[in-house]
Write a structure and sequence with these properties.
By secondary structure, the protein is of the alpha/beta class. The chain has one domain: Aminopeptidase, CATH 3.40.630.100. It is 22% helix and 19% strand. The chain has a 7-stranded mixed β-sheet, with helices on both faces. It has a two-stranded antiparallel ribbon with strand order 1-3. Residues 1-25 and 27-32 have low confidence and may be disordered.
């Protein structure tokens, strides 16, 4: 959390730094299928679906109180999102919680004493066939997600893709970094590129700007609907997410995180701080 005065929360932040990051040309070879639902509202209104059976929503909004007329109080100004959690894009729910500062298995603060952030996630919880529950980021109109994004200066969203969708060779463990928060985006690209976090060199990171489907640069994307008009979208390939869990099932992912999972989380949290 950042210490800011209450009136500051109501004002837009000045222009963010836009130093260019090194871009890698990627050529996507597979397109995404069209969604079954035009919005979250449309999905929630479908009588054939039941919350708690087909899908779930989880969030944490931190309390903020300032009754002092002199001192500035800490205000929650960062949100972490997983729009396609559970069985839709496996691994993103667990990453969302961990990056927000909570162990995905216990819900306890991890690391102890570390900063915690607001989070929101939508999850497919069927035993199979969760893909039809996908609602694209630009169509996310869940009121809690909208409220959390609109009150944040900084946002990160977690997504999953295949190497083919990212224009990468089959089996490539990589993250594509997009979104309109160029300051945070460039910081993440730098941290991954220089391997400043021990052991992180085994995760390849690319600028997603060259792939429209993964670039996350649409202002309507929920991650960019912030006080600053920008956020960062992280697209993790399937091999990378597979390497983060020893038992890659919805029931066991939270209990079987690997060092690769925590190295990735550490990089994102380092950039946010």
């Amino acid at each position: 959390m950042t210490t800011i005065r209450r009136r500051t929360v109501l004002a837009a932040i000045g222009a963010m730094a836009t130093a260019p990051a090194a871009a890698v040309a990627l050529s996507p070879t597979a397109a995404y299928a069209a969604d079954d639902y035009a919005s979250n509202t449309a999905l929630y209104a479908d009588p054939s679906l039941a919350e708690g059976v087909d899908y779930a929503r989880r969030y944490h909004r931190h309390e903020a109180v300032d009754n002092s007329d002199t001192a500035a109080a800490a205000f929650p100004d960062t949100v972490v999102l997983a729009l396609h959690g559970g069985g839709i894009e496996p691994g993103t729910s667990e990453l969302c919680m961990a990056i927000a500062g909570y162990h995905p298995a216990t819900g306890s603060v991890e690391p102890v004493g570390g900063p915690t952030y607001d989070y929101w996630m939508f999850e497919g919880i069927r035993s199979s066939n969760n893909s039809p529950l996908h609602v694209t980021s630009t169509h996310c109109d869940d009121p809690v997600a909208r409220a959390l994004a609109a009150g944040a200066r900084r946002a990160v969203s977690l997504h999953g893709c295949t190497p083919a969708q990212a224009g990468l060779a089959d089996g490539t463990a990589a993250v594509l970094i997009g979104g309109l928060d160029t300051t945070l985006k460039n910081e993440l690209l730098s941290l991954f590129a220089i391997g400043s976090i021990q052991g992180i060199q085994d995760i390849q990171a690319y600028d997603a700007a060259s792939i429209p489907a993964l670039g996350g640069d649409d202002p309507a994307n929920i991650v960019n609907r912030t006080l600053t008009g920008g956020g960062v979208q992280l697209e993790l390939t399937t091999p990378l997410r597979n390497a983060m869990f020893t038992t890659n099932t919805r029931a066991q992912r939270k209990n079987t995180t690997t060092p690769a999972f925590w190295r990735f989380v550490n990089v994102v949290r380092t950039a946010l701080q």
